[in-house]
Amino acid sequence: LASKSKHSSPTHDYSAPLIITAPPGHLTPPYSTSAVALCFQVSKYCPSHPRWEHWGMVKSSEMLTALDPILPAVRDLIAPPDDTPVIQPFPESLKVAIASDQNPLNFSDHTAYDHMFINEMETKASIEQLLDEGEHYVQMLYTFRSVSRAVPMITDSNAVNKAELNRATFDILRPEIIKLKKFMEFQDYTIRTFCANIQHLVSPEARQKVVPEGLYDALTKVVDLLQKCDNLKDMKSCLNNDFSRYKRAFGSIRADLKDGDSLSEEINALQLFLGNPAHPKQLLFYNLRDALKRITGHEEVLCEMIEQCVSFLEEENYLLPDEKYRLIRAIPHLMLLADGEAEVEKSFNIFKPPKGMLNIPRLQKLFKRYPYVPEVGDMSITMRYILARAPHYDADTMEYYWGGERNDAQVEPMYLLDKQWKTFREAHSDWSANFTAGLNIVEDRAFEKDSASAEFAADITNICLAGIRLIRDISCAIIEQTVWKYTHPATEEKLKKLGIDVSTASSYELVVRYNYDSTELSVLVDAISMIKSMTSMLSEKEADLAPFIRLYVHSELQDLVQNNMMAALHRADKKKRPVMNTLMQIRTIAMDLLQGRRADEYRTYKRGGPSPDVPARVVGPSPTQLHLMRTMVRALYDEKSDARASRGFFHKKDLDSDEVKVMESFYKTSLSFPYLLALPNTLAAISDLGDLWYREFYLEVTKQMQFPIALSLPWILTEFVIENVEADAPLIEDIAYTMDVYNDAAKRALYHFNNQFMFDEVQAEVNLAFDQLIFAISDETYTYYKDMAACYNLPVGYKSRVEAAKKAAVGTKSVRRHNIPVNQRNLQLLGRSVDLNLLISQHTSNKLYADIETAVKRYEGSDLSHICELQSILSVLRTTHEYLSSSGIALDSFDAMVDVVNESVGTTSVRGRIAMHTLVTLVTDLFPNYSYNVYTQRYVRSLVPPPNRTGRTGNTPSHPRGNMGYGAMCKEMYESIDKRTRGFVGTEHFKAAISVLGKQCLPLLIEECMNNLEERLIDVDSYLKAMKEGLPPVKLPKYMFKTGGCYGIFEGLLKQFIGYEDLKPEVFQNFREVGNTLLFLRDLSDLIDLEDSHAFVGASPFVGIAPSKDKWEAAAGRGSMGSVYSASGDVTASPLYTLLDELRGAPAAASADFDGLTEAHNLYKKDVTGIRSVFKTALAHVKKTMETIGITKDWGTQATGSGVVEIESPSEFHRLFSALNFLFCMNEDENLSEEDYDEYLTDEEEFGHGFAMAGVLMIHCLDQRACFDMLDFSYHVLNVQKHEICAMPKSGGQIGQVDERMQLQTDRFVVQANRQRDVHFNLFSMIAAHDPSNTSRQLITYNPPPSDTDLKSIPAGALAITSDLRIMESKTASLSLDFDAPTSPPPPPRKAAPPAPPKRLGGEPTSNPMRAQPPPPPKKADTSSAPAPASRPPPPPKPAASEPPVPVKKPPPPPKPMGGGSEVPAPAPASAPPPVPVKRPPPPPKPTGGGSEALAPAPAPTSAPPPVPVKKPPPPPPPPTRR
């Protein structure tokens, strides 16, 4: 067929009938449409074909023409346009051919021609019919399965129905026995036919004639057929099993059968046929040999047949693999038939034949080259075993010369495919290039019927023929390697290397599963791909090639009969030679004369004259024509022919040497004509690799019903293709070619074996294999792109550093073209068109969903510190999604997939799994269980978890295995990267949260944090009210008491609060949660503002924002991005505005763009001055909450009439927080040594800076910072310590001197207080920067004079510090000091050995450990003031009437109020254990004080005032936790 209209011509030369075949049951939609379309395409070139009306498809008057507009649509139905590479053989759901691969008339039309081989043609026709029938029995025997195995046996339980069971068994087995009977009759008829032909050939008349090679070839096929049947009969033991069961059943019901006697005789004959005692094996061949021995001279005919087989093999006179191996198999069997009996004297010895009859060295060479030959399917034969049955064969002396086992090492490279693969690959590349170049010429040039086109047709036909021969050679190499593996199972040593137990491996596993290494599998896959690709190229272009092939064949025939034979015809006619008759017969059979030419032109032939014009037609000869021509030409130039006989010295031969060469060349060339004319059938035969699947021989040997899929060679190859990751063998594009082996097996089951159950088995395995194939290729594709994405997302430079450390390449992936098999949308498999892209896309999508689900579940099982890992995994998965989509896999958008897994599908749904888990971890884990550090801006999990708080433990599920998560290649590198973000929560985690959640989830997060903040403030208010009434009046001690004395006074006054059981678990904890929440909102606000700033800066040029310097500074002073925008220049000068002006006059098609750009412009154009940051909103919310719940009213600054600030017993919040801050800095255990103190945690390490943030924020909101800075207890101690360092020591001063234990506690307190004051200043500055409304202190800027040269004296209010440290003060100066600036902590004084620890508060009163002389008493006694230091303690206060405790929301009743010395506290039980502090890290090294002398400690009171009692002693805290 020609596929283009330019190949057609007004004269249609197609003489052969058009044949359209389709698989049974497969001509249904969608194939019916393709069938009609193909018929329409054929009708373009055969519009008047008589078969069209006969088929009833289209009438002759309704044929489509080349100009019909429906043809393009029809072509689209045949082959949908697809840009993907073709990696599968040309689909054959519907086979279209213009010639049959067989002779449909079986040479019955030879009588229409005048020839001399009438008897030979009749004989050949009968033999061909015999061979067709014999092939049916070969197929029957090979696929025969035991029927009796499925029939139940007769036992005692069913003995009652014995007669019925026997009858049913007989009826079931009867059809199988009839088959055996016909087979027995067939073999007998075949032997008689073969012997009759041999008898005819040994006759003297036949010996004088030239025997056609076709007759010898047909007899060779008969010998091969008989040996196949013989071996299959002996191999199938199930034949005897079914016959035995049939015989037993017949014996039980014989009396009930009418034809029992005839059936009995039949059973006896079958008994001798299946189990002959004289010849239990090879019965058919012994019968044939015995029949031949009765024919005298048969040895000579058999030797000629052997010589012809050897010549055919050496000259490669075959084009099909089965033809080659048929010749090889026939040689030893012909030798066995020709060999005489050894016991008979002077019998024919085939190994020592008469001279000139056989070429023994040539035979020995052949046997050494092919010691193992395929038989049928998975059966194979060993050549020396056949020869060993010959009577004259001596194994001891002949085995080496006839291919013994010792030759296996030499012949193994010839059988293994990997030794020949390089040659095949080079030949395949060369042929592909030549064929492509030829096709380009075919498509470019117009087809003309002339001599020039005939020359090009010869070239293109020779290219096709070279491709056919290359496919044949590769197929033969694959078959030979398979035979070698079948005859050489895996050795025990090889199994041990594979770790396989020899006793558990079956025989089929030894020859298939464990007998191929990776190199052999790789080469085998590539060889299959070469075969299938070449076949696909030839099949696809068969319609283009058919006209050229037929033009070439016609040209060769006419050139022979009208040109090359003219001289011989002229000479024979002139001299009246007998050869003239033969020459004229050849000329008459094939001659095609042009109009006006005469048939007897040879009579006017002159040597050297012009060559006659030969017609150019696109038509080939019929099979009978071609066979007769080749037979007669071969007989004409045969050495026995009269045409080559010498006529004397003065007479020429009828055929000279040149004419003989021409005829010999034509005979060899014409061998390929039948195969070229039936090109589709030839390609199907040489590319059939179904034997790789069939295993009937091993099923019979192992007594198995069927082998698992793991033992199937096609599946082993397919699995290897998917899992092979070698860089030098990218085989993934060969997946469809490998799966085509199943198509070959199914096709053979239907059309060759004609067996439905074999097709069902192939189909069942394909269904199972295809599911595994889709899973495997999807998994491999996903793994490949996952590893590529993980490697791509590694931090810059990280991979190179890892490679430098390991000194090896890591994260390297060889390039594999997964996009080629992935994009196959119409894979042809067992007659079905499978959309491979759709199936792989579904599996890959499911894997991606599962991977996202795994990442989300892993995050849900961990704390907030793993959100960076979640972001990293989602980033890898997003890149994987991009790679998969670019390769052709159809997937949903990645954001949509994440929304489905996150359960946040919907336009308004923001409560996804990730957002809810993030919110839960914030509220229940991060805020209550973490300690914040304002310097590092990180949250670190506290080592002491607070009671009654639930949170994540931080135990994360292990990484998923396989290709989930980060994949297998980069898993370790990402694990090391993720470790750096675990154990804390900081800015990078909040960035990841914003990236993962998106801005649409931030309002929910912020709102819930605000709600949590409001709840915590309510709890704080409850505890503050409870503690307010127990706060004692405190007056700041004078500086004369020095640091130790001041600390001792405050400690004595505030130590009562340590016994409050809810101080740390509730008060400090609620302060921490409030502070942690605010600090989180501050960090989140900074990140959001930074991202908005970047977006604004990026968008500003497009909307015309280019403010001047003055406007920018003015806008910056207002502190908002919106103010910057409003202060910008004219927006009408922006590029976006210009584009909008252009679109206003554009047509309606641009209206959508105009609307979108206008909306974007208006969005950035509007004033957003009122928008504030998240942190500012949080501060405003805190203020509003404090006002709502009454904190502002209860703890605000109380106005006095005189305007004097109350410093002794104020009721403002700053006084309570001052006490809490002092307790926060204190060391609870007074008896800790320096070594033990270094390993225990302080309150700062336990609660972090969130505690300070809460207090500072409330002080800021209540506008009490000035009072706090002035009246804070810890600040006062630090000021005293600073003054103490700067003051000049006085000789003999003992005021404020304390013992070593108290001094050690003071030093530790000073370190913590300094740290807290720095934190306070930092937090005050941060809050003031975001909320300057409460900053009541007015900053006054002092501008000094430009120079001091004109100053005569010190100005008023100035201090002059002389070199001797004396402070000179002007008499008129007014002192003004500013203590706002923070100072670095001073070096503590040297420590002394601590004394014995005193008893804790709540036990028996002890004397104050401070040993110092009391200072002078104050001028005015005040019961509410701090007790004056004295040598003895003041009298205890009188007890007062009991008052009910102030009710609170959550905490227990507060401690009882304490009057101004008039109440006596109730002592706490002595058995209450003091709280044990937890371990903390070591403090910084203690610096020495200024100067070379040690500073004398300040005196302290000898006793502290009695503590304020609490309701019940505090419970013992948890044991100390080491860092």
Which blocks of ≥5 consecutive residues have pLDDT under 50? 1-63, 1118-1129, 1166-1170, 1361-1523
Rg computed from alpha carbons, rounded to a whole number of angstroms: 53 Å
**Structural class computed from helices and strand pairing:** mainly alpha
Q: How large a portion of the residues is in β-strands, by DSSP E?
A: under 5%
Largest sheet strand order: 7-8-9
Instruction: Give a count of the beta strands, DSSP E runs of length 2 or more.
Output: 11
Our count of helices gives: 56
Helix content: 40-55%
Oligomeric organization of the protein chains: single chain
Mean pLDDT across residues:
77
Assign an overall shape: elongated
Cα end-to-end separation:
88 Å
Biggest sheet descriptor: 3 strands, antiparallel
What would the keywords be for this entry?
3-stranded antiparallel sheet, mainly alpha, 2% strand, 56 helices
Describe the structure.
By secondary structure, this protein is mainly alpha-helical. 53% of the residues lie in helices and 2% in strands. The protein has a three-stranded antiparallel sheet. A hairpin with a 4-residue loop joins strand 7 (930-933) and strand 8 (938-941). The chain is elongated, with a radius of gyration of 53 Å. Residues 1-63, 1118-1129, 1166-1170 and 1361-1523 have low confidence and may be disordered.
